[in-house]
């Protein structure tokens, strides 16, 4: 994978966002690979096809590419709410690729993949209809809430101009691919509970601690559910069944981490967070420093 973009592909476009789209999609045609199978290319869809930009001809996974020149974090503005929400509900939502480029050097700075099975309605925020002065008055847009996803759902393909190992990227996808077959509401619960577990920032924790830290936020995300504690326990079991947490007995749990450098499972030591709320973990197998 090369990280250089070709600005010449944007020639002839007056509209800046169309120009960037031509440049980044041209890059994608040459450089993107499928994360879900061993295909080393994905095919561009015809221009103007809503929601989907690339498709893998081997396994039919779909990808949507979003590009901008500043970092993707917090909330990301997407297109219309209804088509995306429908796609989540009926299981046709694509994988999202968030590409941040350097507009001076014309290169890819960061490229993150959010697997489609991490997308649920609780990761979407419906916006107010556009006001009467807007060109598309009454149109309802949507934000994707990246900050609500666990870090496991944001897989780096390029991180700070470094191209990540392709097999490790695919292994990160595979680790959570068990979510694929699940209905959107259940997938949403797993993602939300995992995000809360990660946010605890502790290698071991008790059920009581977990309720105290996370029950209110999860109730707010799922107001229709009156049995939030049952759901939290049930989802910890799902995470246990797939090797993401361990049960220690007596209501205690331990987080298992997966090293994207070497693929080794390990239990991290609790480390303090830095100023921006991130923790640094060291993989005991390969010594790689990981951020969460
Ligand atoms: Zn594929
Ligand atoms: Zn490692």
Describe the structure.
With 292 residues, the chain is α+β, with helices and mostly antiparallel strands. It has 2 domains: 7-174, PvuII Endonuclease, Chain A; 181-291, Winged helix-like DNA-binding domain superfamily/Winged helix DNA-binding domain (Arc Repressor Mutant, subunit A, Orthogonal Bundle). Helices cover 28% and strands 24% of the residues. The strands form 5 sheets. It has a 7-stranded mixed β-sheet with strand order 1-2-3-5-6-9-10. The protein has a 3-stranded antiparallel β-sheet with strand order 4-8-7. Helix 5 packs across helix 6. The chain is globular and about 65 Å long. One zinc ion binds next to loops.
Order of strands in the sheet with most strands: 1-2-3-5-6-9-10
- Helix amount, in percent? 25-40%
Q: What structural class do the secondary elements suggest?
A: alpha+beta
Q: Hey, roughly how much beta strand do the residues contain? A: 15-25%
What kind of sheet is the major sheet? 7 strands, mixed
Low-confidence stretches: none
The number of distinct structural domains comes to 2
Question: Which class of the largest domain in CATH terms?
Answer: Alpha Beta
Short description:
The chain contains 6 helices and 17 strands. It has 292 residues and is an alpha+beta fold.
Q: What is the topological layout?
A:
Layout: H1 16-31, E1 43-44, E2 54-55, E3 62-68, E4 75-80, H2 81-89, E5 95-102, E6 107-114, E7 124-126, E8 141-145, E9 155-159, E10 162-163, H3 166-175, H4 184-200, E11 204-206, H5 207-221, H6 228-241, E12 245-249, E13 252-255, E14 257-258, E15 265-266, E16 280-282, E17 289-291
Parallel strand pairs: 3-5
Antiparallel strand pairs: 1-2, 2-3, 4-8, 5-6, 6-9, 7-8, 9-10, 11-13, 12-13, 14-15, 16-17
The structure holds zinc ion (2 copies).
């Amino acid at each position: 994978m090369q990280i250089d973009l070709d600005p010449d592909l944007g020639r002839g476009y007056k509209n800046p966002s169309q120009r960037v789209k031509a440049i980044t999609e041209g890059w994608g045609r040459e450089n993107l690979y499928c994360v879900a199978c061993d295909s080393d290319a994905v095919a561009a869809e015809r221009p103007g096809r809503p929601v989907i930009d690339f498709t893998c001809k081997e396994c039919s996974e779909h990808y949507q590419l979003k590009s901008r020149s500043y970092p993707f974090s917090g909330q990301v503005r997407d297109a219309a709410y209804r088509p995306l929400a429908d796609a989540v509900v009926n299981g046709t939502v694509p994988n999202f690729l968030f590409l941040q480029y350097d507009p001076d050097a014309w290169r890819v700075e960061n490229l993150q993949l959010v697997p489609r099975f991490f997308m649920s309605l609780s990761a979407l925020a419906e916006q107010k209809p556009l006001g009467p002065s807007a060109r598309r008055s009454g149109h309802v847009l949507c934000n994707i809430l990246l900050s609500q996803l666990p870090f496991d759902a944001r897989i780096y393909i390029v991180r700070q101009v470094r191209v990540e190992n392709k097999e490790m990227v695919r292994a990160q996808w595979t680790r959570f691919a068990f979510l694929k077959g699940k209905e959107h509401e259940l997938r949403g619960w797993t993602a939300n509970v995992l995000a809360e577990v990660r946010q605890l920032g502790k290698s071991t924790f008790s059920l009581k601690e977990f309720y105290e830290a996370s029950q209110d936020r999860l109730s707010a995300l799922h107001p229709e559910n009156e049995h939030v504690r049952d759901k939290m326990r049930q989802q910890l079991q799902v995470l246990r069944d797939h090797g993401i947490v361990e049960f220690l007995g007596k209501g205690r749990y331990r987080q298992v981490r997966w090293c994207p450098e070497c693929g080794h499972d390990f239990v991290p030591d609790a480390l303090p967070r830095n100023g921006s709320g991130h923790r640094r973990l060291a993989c005991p197998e390969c010594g790689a420093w990981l951020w969460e």
